[in-house]
Structure formats: C-alpha cells, structure tokens
Design a protein that fits this description.
The protein has 44 helices and 24 strands. The chain is α+β, with helices and mostly antiparallel strands.
Length: about 1100
C-alpha cells in the first residue's frame, strides 16, 4: 500500500527494523519480530542462527515487545511488517512511501519503483528535485487508488491504514465495508486487553496482542441481543454487548458516546435489513451495504431525529442547521434556537426551554427578504399575511439563497411588480410587529381543504351540534372553542402555527369536538401529506375497488366489529367509509396490508375527520408515529411494551417489589398500545387520549399507562394472582368518564366490564391525563427513542429464538439428532442464509426469509447456499468439483420442488447420513440416482415455483399439506423403482467417490467391483430364465461387456476424470449389443449384494463425530465465503 510521504528519524529505528534490500534512493525493510520462517512474531528467533541461548531468548522477547507495540500504538509502523523508505545519498532524511502485509506485496511495490522511477531520477541534478518528484508521484498513486472507495472518509490516509489492519487480522470477505475504528479496552474476564475495535457493515471486531497473547473477537450484528451503555465500580463507563449468551464489555473509549451511537445504528441497520425488511425498504438511503460510511450513518441518524421531532414525511432529510434568534410576537422577545432545513420544509425549534417550535412548508413561503444589508437577519413571508424574522444568522446570505431556490423565488431586483408588492407587504408587517407587539391579530393562517373526497366527518353527520342548546356541557364546549380561537389569534392557525407549552396545556384540558379533526391533522403532520398528494386517495380507492386479497377478506370480517355500538357504524355510510379507507391503505402498503386494531383506530379517525383526512391520519400513525406496530409480528408494540416495563421499574418501584415478573403488564397493556386505549376506555374518554397522542406521540400513551398503574397501586399490590389484577384494571377503566363530553348517551360507549360500579369511584379522563403529565411529564421523547432502539434488539432476537425453539421441537420428532446439535445446525443454517445477504444490495436470498409463513418455512436455502453448507457438514469426502452430488441431494430433499430447502428437510437428510442404519444410508444414496434427483433439466437449471408468502394464501393447500404429513407412512423398500443401466453406473461412481481417501480405499474399491460383477451376472441369469427362447449367444456379449464396464469403472474411478465424467463413453466401449440390452436392478438386490461385503458395511456403520463436524463448520463457514 502506498503511503503519504512522511519524514521519519532512523537514529534508533534500526533496532526495530531490518534492511532487506536497498539502492541509491530506496530502502526495503522488515519489522523485527516478523520473519519468513516462523510465520509469526517470533520468526526472527527461528530464522536467525545465533550461538548462545540468551541471544535467542532476547530475540524472542524483542519480537513480543515489538508485536505488542504494533498493536497498542497508533503509528505507521504497526500497519504492516514491511515498508519502503526513500532517501538521497547526500541527505540523512528518510521518507516512508509504502508498506505491505506480505513480502509479495512489498516486493511488487519495490519492482514498480525499479521499473518506473529509478531511470527517471538520473536526470535530476539536485536532491530536492528528486525528493519532490518521488513525493508527487506517490501522492498521485494514492489519489488514483482512493478515487472511488475512500472519497467519503474524513481522513483517507489513516483509514487506509486501518483498513489494511482490518483485512489482515480478521480475514473477512473483501466486500466487507469497514465503517470506522476506535482504540479501546476489551474486558476478558477481569483483565482488560488494550486493542482496536473495528465496526464494519456486518461485524463488530476487536483485536489485541499483548506480550504473545492474541485476542480476536468477531460478532455479527444480527447475533446481538443487548447493546447498552453501563457503568459499575470497576468500569466507570463502558459499552455492554450481549451475544450468544456471553457478555462483552468495551471501555477506555475516547469518544464513548460517538462509538455507541455508531454501534447502535449499525445493529439497527442489520436488524432492519435481515429481520425486518418491511421497515428497511422504507430507507433507500442505506440500501447498499457497500456504500455505508460513518458520515452517512451520522447524517441518517440526524435526519431520523429531525423527522420524528417535527412529524415530517419520511422522504425529508436534514440538509442544513443554522443557529439563530426568532422574533416571537406573542412573547415580545427573540428566542434562541436552530433553523433546520430539509427539501420541502423550514423548521425552527427553541433551545431556551420555552418549548417553542414552528414548521413552515416551502409551498407556503412567498418571499425571503433581508431587512438591511448590515444585519445578519432575514425575513420569511408566508401566505396568510404572516412573517417570521430570524436574526443573528451566521450564514444568512446562503440560507436566504437556499430557501429562495427551493421555493422557486427569484432574488434578482428586476423581478415583477408583484414581487415588489410582496416585499413591501412583508416590510410593512415587520414594522407593524415592531411598533405594535400587542397587535397580533394578523397571524391567522390559511386552512387547506382538499376537495378530493366530499364526505363529512361522521360525527358531524350523526351528531350535529345544536347551536341553541345551552346546557352546561355545551357551554363548556363553547368556552373551549373560544380558548382555542384566542390561541389561534396569538400563535397562528394551520401549518405555520407556533407550538408552545400553552398548546400542550390546552390539549391536556381537552380539544373541542369541532376542532378535533383539524388539530389531529396538524399535530400528526398528515396535513402536509395530504397537501402534497392531491387526488392520491381518490386514485387509491378507484384502483383498490373490487380487489380480493387476504387483507380485504380480513377487513370484511372486521368491519362490523368496529365500534358496533356507535350509530355511525350501524349504517352503510360509516361501514362503507371504513371499508374504503382500510382497503385503500392495504393497497398502498401491501407489506402491512391489514392488521387487527387498525379497524378500531380508523373508526375513531372517521368520526372526527373527513374520509381522505382519516386515510392520511392512518398513514401518519402506521408509518411514522407507531412504526412497525401494524405488521404481522407487531414488533413495534412489543418494543414499546419493553420500554413501558423499563419505565415501570424506574418510576414505580413499589409495584416492581411486589410483582417481580413484569410480563403480566406486557400482556395486559398490549391493547393499550395497539388501540391507543380506545378498546378499554369509553369512546368519549378515549378521544382525549388520542388528542394527547397526536401531539406528544407514544410518550403520551406511556405516561397514561404509568398513571393508571399508579392510581391502582394499592389494589394491585394487594392482589394475589394475575386474574385479580386484570379484574381491578378492568373495573377501573369502566369507571373512567368524561364529564365535559357533549355527546348524547346514544353516542357514548357503554362500559364493557362489570356493570357494578358502586365500589369504584368515577375518574374523570381530563384529571387522569393531567395527573399523568404532572407526575411523568419529565419523560423525554429522546429517552423513549433510545429505549426503543435498545429494546428492539432484544425483542426481535426473542422472536427469532421462539421461532428456533418451535422449529427444533418439530424437527426433533423426526430426527435422531439431540437438541444441542439441532441448535447448532439451526444457527449454521440461518447464518448461511445471512451470508448470502451481507454484501449484496438486493440479494434474492432476502426473499427466502418471510416471517409471515409457518415456522419451518421462514428460513430457506436455495441451491448455492445449500451446496456451500452441505459441503461443510457432509460425513464423507464427496467429490464436489461440479456440485453434482450436492445438486442431487438438493433435488431429492426439496419435496415440493420449489427450488428451496427448509430446515426440516435439511436436518432429515443429515440425520440419515449421520445416524441412519446401513439400510437407510444406502436407500438415500440409491434414491439420489432416481428421478427427480438424478434426471436434471437439459440446461441444468433448477425450476422454481412462484414465490410463496405473496398475495392471497391458499389455506386449503396448507391444510392438505398438513394432512399429508400426518398420514405419511414409512417408505417401503419394495416401493422403490428399479435403477436402470445409466443410473447404476453413476451409482457405482458415487460409491467410488465416497470411498476416495479412506484408509481402506483399495479394499472398498475391490468390494464395489465384486458387487457390481455379481449384480450383472445375476441380471444375466434372470434374463435367461425369463427369455428361454432367446439364443444364449445374445446375452454373452452383454454379460462380458457389463463385466468389462465394471472393471473399467474401478480403474477410472481412481482418476480425477473418472469421478465426474458420465458413463456414455464406457457404454460405447462395451460393444454395440450393450446399447440395445437394457438391464436394471431393484434396491433389494443392491442391498443384499452389499451386505455380503463387510468392508462396505463397516464403512457406512462407522460413527460420525457430529460435534466435531459442527465445530469445524462454525469456523470454516465465514472463511469459506471469504476465500471465494
């Protein structure tokens, strides 16, 4: 590897380096402690001939010390054991220009210098010119090498050195992308090992070498169960990694937080890519594992936080951040914060604790002006006669130009007269706010209204408000509306409204019925989705009309179960609207389709929002606010339940002391998260919870859950079992009311629990929500997101482990392998699948993992994957030069002929080869030479059936398959078809290949030849008995030719050519009569003949060391991929 020329001192360097070659301008040196003969760090002691034991010991110790320094210190010397230096005869200064891991690599660089540089140097007169020329040439070579792969790295030179070490130490496939590296200590037991932590796309690696003790660790990200920051008495702060049931601790990191964030992102990336493809496909920025960099991960993480905070569409990315002050008219002062700019939005969030933020879509901006050239300020004018003034912006000119370009606004002074008018209007607004800060009545925004769907909110249709009704509840409702109108007049209304602490206070007190739909759209960000996709919902409804899928069947089944007590869903109007919204969303997002609980949530959305608005609200909930909730494994809900358990431990210690197993709360709270408490609370109370959810996200649900448990603390502590605790919570939810609800009794939901509520006092939902915010409002959204990431690893690995246990339980009923061997086999099988997905952007193998299928079908291997794994686990030395036998085995065990093999089929085949009797093993080999295993298509391509797990599932086919498996009986050897001439010749070849390399090889070959001759003569006798009228001469040539074929087979099998070539040429040599004489054997004949050969019987009955095979496969699996 060429290095950036760097001056070094050689005063003491000769103690650490040995010169191997030199000339007038260059020196090739080898690091002391690295020799050719020893192959390790003590090679010098093995190679150098010295007299005296003490000198040898000193050389060994020197080699160990040098190796230790090379690992611990961060210098060029530790990169590689070979280097090339440049110098001139009249100078004492040396420059390092190249290094190499192997002698072959460094010699290649040396030869290049001799051929391309040495002749040119003779034309220079001065040493300075020679050095300048060499340095320039080397820098040019480095720039040429790093044009593509290292252009995105912060320090390409150091990164190249780290990449060289990474490749040398861990021997991973060359496609593996190193992301970053850190110096740290790894705790092995109670002893820290100082070394280097390497974080790549698919692996976490650590290397340390201290005084002869080498520590090497390689963990794939998909194997990690826990990843968290911890601290204890010994380790003040460290990173804890749990994988394969082992704990790993990394400490003494200079940038621990940065390291942890990168590790967290890489683990999350791997989990999404390999286990949770539905979430991964929504992140095209990280789709290519070969292009992931540290900078890219950091940018992706910031964009995720940006989108989550401002509730923006997933297509938005954080482009620029500027610190500035924003003039806030309602507070009459400038608030400090940050301007965040994306492709289509200008956002501002305060940093002074005022909890003020504003979101301005670029489509709403009409102009951007600078009040005067002397101040670092700019004014953004928005539709609706509003203006926002940002001051103290460091790079205000570039920010103004960026906003103008994204809004399509011209910055030239020769613009149209309308531009001048807008500029004058903006200036007058600025002057007005500065002179009259109390007058903010002009800050009323413009509400966007889509005409795509004319349907009104169902609550408006089925419960129109009576304006003349002046009962106390309606009066209170009017007072709420007035409070919100005042808030709108001060803080704005619509997409550019200021969000402040006062906004949250109004939410907690309750949202008026008339404003609920509008505010839900605003707080969730759905208003922006709908504004940027006009007509999209109408098109979806038309396209999905009349479609028939599994999702539509489930939707039809659940339509009448959605708020059945509400009048809106007792009529065709409400049912039809619900059907259209759910079907349109299933058509939009087939990966989710339809999940139970979506019908309940959508029903409530339709009550307060128009049909199209309800659709976009559902999009916001399913794809942004509750990620991965509504998929087949409800991973998101399980993750948030784990977060909820963590919060219970932190905030309710009394409850934790009484109920050590918190899994009870997970099972009880599942419906709380999936339906946002709608399924457990009366509808008039549940909508208040939904109000808080759309403003604060999942944090509001977690807070309310803690408040519910806190309210029932004493009763829960005194209960004796889970059933009693469920009853307590059920009675509590039945007692929750909404005293301020203006809804009539016909609309309000009747309690679903015990009607005897005399023992439980009424609880007002507004008071319960206010208590939740007062007690647990200090929970920060950032902490919730961190907890989500931490628990997601554990949840997904738990689901994967459940899948594994279920698969092993099923397979163990048919295989004789013990559970520990099945466990290891499953891990190898699963890892082989992942090895095909690690380094390709769109690997076909990714389609072979479908969590929606039955446990046995979730992981499957195609032929190439199967062939690689089978070659590691086969009990005999199969000839695999052309993968012929692997192909036959694959075809044989692929029962449904879909080109994929599941774990059960794989294990049953290995179980036969490992633990089967002589008869079972021979029957397996016999069937390899019968259709469908032996008869391949002409082009040799395995035909695949259409993909499973896509579209509508044929339940009848599954039931029929299960019935056939139950009724399947043991295959009788008499049922096997006879093996013909070509098949028998190949069967004999297979036996020869199996015996190749065995200590009893010659004896086994003779036994096969004897059996072959015997079978052929038996067939000749049988034919004579069946055809007595045939002339005896006709069979003689066939008999002699067959015998010759057998002997030729024995001779040819000992050569490489004979083991893989077909038998047609042998048949031609046997004579013309053999081609016209068909003969065949039954399995019983073959079995009886082979049983008479003790050598063959003992070979097949020889026990296989399964554990050793599995251990060797674990080590070789990744190396085999690396060597391809």
């Amino acid at each position: 590897m060429w290095l950036k020329p760097e001056e070094i001192l050689l005063k003491n360097a000769f103690k650490l380096w040995v010169t191997e070659k030199d000339n007038e301008y260059f020196v090739l040196q080898r690091r002391r402690g690295y020799g050719e003969g020893g192959g390790g760090l003590t090679g010098d002691a093995a190679c150098v001939k010295v007299s005296g034991r003490m000198c040898s010991i000193m050389l060994i110790v020197a080699g160990l010390l040098v190796g230790t320094l090379d690992t611990v210190l961060d210098s060029t010397s530790k990169v590689a054991p070979y280097r090339i230096l440049h110098h001139t005869p009249d100078s004492q200064v040396y420059w390092s220009i190249a290094c190499g891991v192997t002698k072959e690599e460094i010699v290649q660089h040396w030869d290049w210098l001799q051929q391309n540089i040495m002749r040119t140097l003779s034309v220079f007169d001065s040493s300075e010119d020679i050095t300048s020329f060499v340095q320039g040439k080397i820098r040019g070579l480095i720039a040429e090498e790093g044009k593509t792969s290292l252009v995105l790295e912060d320090d390409p030179e150091k990164f190249r050195e780290a990449l060289l070490r990474f490749e040398k130490w861990f021997e991973l496939p060359p496609e593996e992308k190193l992301v970053t590296y850190y110096s740290c200590s790894y705790w092995k037991g109670k002893v820290p090992c100082q070394g280097w932590l390497y974080l790549s796309t698919n692996f976490l690696c650590f290397y340390s070498y201290l005084l002869g003790a080498e520590v090497k660790l390689v963990i794939s990200w998909d194997e990690i169960w826990r990843l968290e920051k911890t601290s204890n008495v010994i380790l003040t702060e460290s990173i804890h990694v749990l994988a394969h049931g082992e704990d790993h601790y990394f400490s003494m990191l200079l940038h621990l937080n940065e390291t942890f964030v990168i590790m967290e992102q890489l683990a999350d990336y791997s989990i999404k890519r390999l286990f949770d493809k539905e979430a991964f496909q929504r992140q095209p920025a990280l789709s290519d594992p070969l292009q992931i960099t540290k900078r890219g991960l950091e940018a992706h993480a910031k964009s995720e936080q940006f989108r989550a905070f401002f509730r923006l569409p997933r297509e938005e990315n954080l482009l620029e951040v500027h610190e500035s002050f924003l003039w806030v008219p309602f507070s009459h002062f400038n608030t400090l914060g940050k301007i965040c700019l994306s492709e289509n939005y200008l956002c501002f969030a305060s940093q002074d604790g005022s909890q003020c933020h504003v979101i301005i879509p670029m489509r709403e901006i009409v102009n951007v002006e600078k009040p005067d050239s002397g101040s670092r300020a700019l004014t953004v004018c928005v539709r609706g006669k509003r203006a926002l003034r940002f001051s103290e912006v460091r790079d205000y000119q570039r920010l103004a130009n960026t906003i103008r370009s994204r809004c399509g606004i011209s910055a030239s002074p020769q613009h149209s007269a309308s531009s001048e008018a807008i500029r004058g209007e903006c200036q007058s607004l600025i002057n007005h706010f500065e002179d009259n800060p109390e007058d903010v009545t002009l800050m009323v925004g413009q509400k966007d209204c889509s005409k795509a769907v004319s349907t009104e909110a169902l609550m408006t249709v089925f419960h129109p408000q009576d304006v003349e009704n002046l009962d106390p509840k309606m009066l209170k409702e009017k007072m709420k509306e007035q409070s919100w109108n005042i808030h709108f007049s001060e803080y704005g209304r619509g997409t550019s409204m200021f969000f402040t602490r006062k906004t949250r206070d109004l939410i907690v007190r309750g949202v008026p019925e008339a404003l609920r739909g509008e505010l839900w759209m605003l707080f969730s960000g759905a208003v922006n989705d709908m504004a940027t996709h006009p007509g999209y919902y109408t098109e979806l409804v038309e396209q999905s009309l009349g479609t028939s899928t599994l999702a539509t069947d489930e939707i039809e089944r659940d339509l009448h179960r959605s708020l059945p007590e509400h009048p809106a869903f007792q009529s065709d109007t409400g049912i039809s609207a619900l059907r259209r919204v759910l079907t349109a969303y299933a058509y939009r997002n087939p990966k989710i389709g339809y999940c139970q609980a979506m019908n309940i949530l959508t029903s409530v959305l339709l009550l307060y929002a128009k049909e199209e608005e309800a659709f976009w609200l559902l999009v916001a909930v399913c794809e942004r606010m509750l990620p991965d909730y509504f998929n087949r494994r409800i991973i998101g809900a399980l993750v948030d339940q784990a977060v909820f358990e963590d919060l219970i431990r932190e905030n309710l210690p009394q409850l934790v002391d009484h109920m050590t197993d918190l899994s009870f709360f997970s099972s009880v709270s599942l419906s709380w998260f999936l339906t946002l408490f709608i399924s457990v609370l009366p509808i008039e109370s549940a909508v208040n919870v939904v109000d808080c959810f759309f403003y604060d996200g999942i944090k509001a649900i977690l807070q309310l859950g803690l408040a519910v448990l806190d309210y029932n603390m004493e009763a829960l502590i005194s209960c004796h079992d889970d059933a009693e605790a469920v009853t307590i919570l059920s009675k509590f939810f039945d007692s929750v009311t909404n005293r301020d609800s203006p809804l009539p009794p016909t609309v309000q939901q009747a309690p679903v629990g015990n009607n005897d509520k005399a023992s439980h006092l009424k609880v007002d939902i507004s008071e319960l929500i206010r208590e939740a915010y007062e007690k647990y409002g200090n929970i920060r959204s950032e902490e919730v997101e961190r907890s989500r990431k931490r628990n997601k690893l554990y949840v997904i690995q738990t689901l994967e482990d459940t899948t594994k246990q279920n698969v092993i339980r099923v397979v163990s009923q048919e295989a004789r392998l013990n559970p520990s061997h099945l466990d290891d086999l499953y891990n190898l099988f699963k890892r082989q699948h992942f090895l095909s997905c690690y380094w390709t952007m769109q690997s076909p193998a990714l389609l072979h993992h479908d969590p929606s299928l039955a446990y046995l079908e979730q992981y499957q291997l195609a032929f190439q994957q199967f062939s690689t794994l089978f070659s590691l686990l086969e009990p005999w030395a199969f000839c695999t030069t052309k993968c012929t036998l692997s192909l036959w085995v694959f075809r044989l065990i692929d029962e449904n002929q879909d080109g994929l093999v599941n774990f059960k089929e794989f294990c049953c085949a290995l179980d036969t080869l490992y633990s089967g009797s002589f008869t079972h093993k021979l029957k397996f080999l016999f069937k390899l030479h019968l259709p469908p295993a032996f008869d391949l298509p002409e082009d040799g391509v395995i035909r695949k059936s259409p993909e499973r797990g896509r579209g509508k599932v044929d339940l009848q086919a599954y039931l029929k398959q299960w019935q056939n498996e139950i009724l399947k009986k043991e295959e009788n050897i008499k049922d096997l078809p006879r093996i013909n001439q070509t098949q028998f010749i190949q069967f004999s070849k297979t036996l020869y290949n199996i015996f190749h390399g065995d200590p009893e090889e010659e004896c086994l070959y003779r036994a096969v030849a004897h059996v072959t001759s015997l079978l052929l003569r038996m067939e000749e006798v049988g034919r004579r008995l069946q055809e007595p009228s045939s002339p005896p001469e006709s069979s003689k040539p066939a008999s002699s030719a067959a015998a010759d074929e057998s002997s030729n087979e024995e001779a040819s099998s000992t050569t490489p050519e004979g083991s893989d070539t077909p038998s047609s040429h042998n048949s031609q040599d046997a004579g013309p009569d053999l081609l016209h004489t068909e003969w065949s054997f039954s399995f019983e004949q073959v079995l009886a003949s082979l049983l008479n050969e003790p050598a063959i019987v003992s070979f097949f009955e020889r026990p296989v060391d399964i554990q050793t095979k599995l251990e060797q496969a674990k080590v070789a699996q990744l190396k085999l991929k690396a060597n391809k």
